[in-house]
């Protein structure tokens, strides 16, 4: 029996490796709105089963009528990603209410060889949160309880279910005098389980570090239904391999995260924001270094956007005005400080800014005088993805690059693309993370051909990352080799294989077209 | 012509207000304070009038304890030429503020006094009207548009009233209070913040101005409004009518 299983497993893997470069033609026929990267192609593995009426009845016995969704409209939303770029054809959406239900669903799907895709807020930008084909969607959105909040230890420790929306957690903590260690534009819809599975970065990584540091524990359900309880609330625990780190950022390929325990920093009262204009990229870099030196302890965000980004936002976003009228400057920097002494922080920031103006690093700038003005500065930066969507088609790239080289890529891309599309750049300069967006009137393979593989090769040559924080998903799984060595990828695959192999009764790989397998096929 | 603008330091508009446990007032410890939004709009209008050449100087005035100077600095950073801080540690109600302003007006002799229509902490909407009464000056409150005529020495003010818009013509000197749609205040730019550091803030006390602060009002208790109850889904029109009739008693 065991030998058969091993051989069967190898067979499935190899069929995936061998799978050719053929997009499902029916996808292409839905032209216009939906778009797929020409370079990546996936074939539905015939070894996965299709849903049968018996499956539906079984799910209904576990989840009740309301937990099993087959309504066309609801499915349409769940099948499509936020950008409208990736579209699956799933016929079934499941909404478990607790870990036990998740475990039962996965156990069943595993035994039936039904492919699944875990889904949270569906705000991902790389097609990782929607089905590729007809995978069963397991949406944890109903698991939104806050289980406990402890403010007695060093900082607050929040334990909650994976379906909690980030903004709701932020509001809850606000009342308690704490904040979430991450913040992103999608906070109104994204869920903490997805944030953790993607290792989301966000606007405050500069100050509070990545989720690898702030997540104290998590509970996840593996492919065969095994519940892995790693939900510690301890700050320090060096007992064996810290497996939660593998789940953080694994994009659901190892299991579905069901509960998260996270360290929450205290909410500090003194927040100041400045919106600055710089004439060239070198000044931006120098400003960052100066800010880290002079504002070190209180610096909480350092974002940048270029002139094309600013023009786009002013044109397409409602309720936005140019903080430094009348012209558009070459670069804009948003600096935020968070501290506990209002007067001291404000003086510190003002002194730093005035010095920057005098030394020529900053051409001009404004300092927010109240929370409303601060929000309006953030609205400009956080509203960029939305503005890009409204402007038409957008090719989105999220790259980590050495600071001094970052803008070179943008300029070279402009030369590559020419007048066909606009190259818009913004990002977390403080983290060395560039969000490169090419905005075109419509999706056009000619434009795409000029972008890829140029952008990946450029990034690889400079030892950057082709996905700083968005993850690989469907968009970039096959591109992993641009940023990871073959030996590293091999080990990832071996590990992935190992995890499933070691689990009793995993008769087939359940994570849909597991990212790792996509990587190997490239 | 000089323009005097009264500005107030209040809890920032975006802050979630909490009532103190002893119900004596609102929690102000460690809470972000800013310039009252309507005062900001008033100051912006004064600056625009000056920039159009119809006024020579904008003087920002604020009253209260030392911390008020932070807000005055914001006013100077926006572009006010100089400021006056009337130092008083306690709470000042609108009538006291109006009396102090009257004393200042007698010293500075401005042609126009601008205020916000109301402060967002007490929502009194009284100071502008009171000072106009004390000075016996005409008043244009809830202004959504102000047009000055230097020759005729008048101000044409569009007011936002319940029925729509009312247009008044006031002889200067006059009192105008600003409403939300009057303008969108400018941000404080770094060069202006730099310039503001060397602008003068004159400090005075109510005693200097021979104004006696006494209040006929005492805040007895502050409580939160009742929490909003969750909504209920009804399953039919009949049930809705029944609930409207028997529970909400509105039909």
TrEMBL record, chain A:
Signal peptide: none annotated. It comes from the Eukaryota. Keywords: FAD, Flavoprotein, Oxidoreductase. Its cofactor is FAD. Residues 86-267 form the FAD-binding PCMH-type domain. This is D-2-hydroxyglutarate dehydrogenase, mitochondrial-like isoform X1. It comes from Coffea arabica (Arabian coffee).
Automatic annotation (TrEMBL), chain B:
The keyword Transport applies. The keyword Electron transport applies. Pfam families: ETF. CDD domains: ETF_beta. SMART domains: ETF (SM00893). InterPro entries: ET-Flavoprotein_bsu_CS (IPR000049), ETF_a/b_N (IPR014730), ETF_b (IPR012255), ETF_beta_N (IPR033948), Rossmann-like_a/b/a_fold (IPR014729). Residues 23-213 form the Electron transfer flavoprotein alpha/beta-subunit N-terminal domain. Its main location: mitochondrion. It is found in: Mitochondrion matrix. Keywords: Electron transport, Mitochondrion, Transport. The electron transfer flavoprotein serves as a specific electron acceptor for several dehydrogenases, including five acyl-CoA dehydrogenases, glutaryl-CoA and sarcosine dehydrogenase. It transfers the electrons to the main mitochondrial respiratory chain via ETF-ubiquinone oxidoreductase (ETF dehydrogenase). Heterodimer of an alpha and a beta subunit. Belongs to the ETF beta-subunit/FixA family. This is Electron transfer flavoprotein subunit beta. It comes from Coffea arabica (Arabian coffee). The lineage of its organism: Eukaryota, Viridiplantae, Streptophyta, Embryophyta, Tracheophyta.
